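Quick one, T. Sequence first:
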Amino acid sequence: MRDFFAELEQRKQAGLYRTRRRISGPQKPVLTSNGKQLLSFCSNDYLGLANHPSSIEALRNALPETGLGGAASHLICGHHDAHHLLEERLAAFTSRSSALFFSTGYMANMGVISALAGRGDTIFSDRLNHASIIDGCVLSRAKVRRYAHGDVSTLATMLAETSGHKLVVTDGVFSMDGDVAPLVELSSVCREHGALLVVDDAHGFGVLGPHGQGSLAEFGLSEENVPILIGTLGKAAGTSGAFVAGPALLMDYLVQKARTYIYTTAMPPALALATCANLDLIEQGDERRTHLQSLIGRFRKEAVGLGYELMPSYTPIQPIMIGDNHVVLALSQALEERGLLVTAIRPPTVPEGEARLRVTFSADHSCGDLDYLMQALWECRYLLDSRSTVL
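Structure tokens:
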């Protein structure tokens, strides 16, 4: 029998053991954990909409009309008018022909990838893609070829030497590095080699592009350039669920083939209406995005000045590279002792030797919040010197 206890002990010794943190109250910059207030810099609520009064009011108003549960799958009797309205709003907002509402981003990636590729096909996946993309590739049973992060030249060579149906899938904004994929170049090479391009814009939707339409809109990439767009609604959109947008033909195909869409109960329709309300806030949120970019720019300048190593990111995801698992845990703990919640990210979420603090910003953070973070990072700077003794 497999020794599960020994495996857990090994994870603890390697600094890889994971624990859950209980949070009380709503999601906002100041969270309550075990009765202690912590200023959080680890949420994906980039626009501060997870606790927005308009969203809460929209949900409250929707419940008498829609009820609570989805009750059945979309293909039985669970596809509510509210779901359909959200799909129409998402298609229009992203300038796509059609859209489908999925229960989670993980389910969207697994369902879309495994539906659009199968045995005999080839999927090309960026080496730093999210776990949900990786698992979708495995589930498809297609041949999977991974290309070095953002390496379009190598991808072009791989595509040129491969025949048959080809699917290229990438994150738009990479969740652990915060950088943006070379989307224009990817679109060009996919068109040249007859490959279908899928972009998961979970961390770009709501933040990047005109009116928060996402990373594809930021680079002016249309449905013709990038046929399949996947987006998450539990991050900048502040609610829950996910969507896939693209040509009506492919959306119809996914209704027939995407198992994570077909064989699961529909999300509560009231959440769909609350998301519609938050789409209005995203569209009208230029002031929020401007403030967010101001925080990011100032953080980058001051963190580098303190001697911290950052990644080349202009998004709300700002990793501080540490390297050693034990040192990054110590730094995270030292910040928590000062009233800050900043998550330590370790393998296998990131490659070996690339442990980091994943600092994320929200439009709800104030300049004073950033002052407090920078003061704490200055006080904890001494921990970086312990890397030489640990390594």
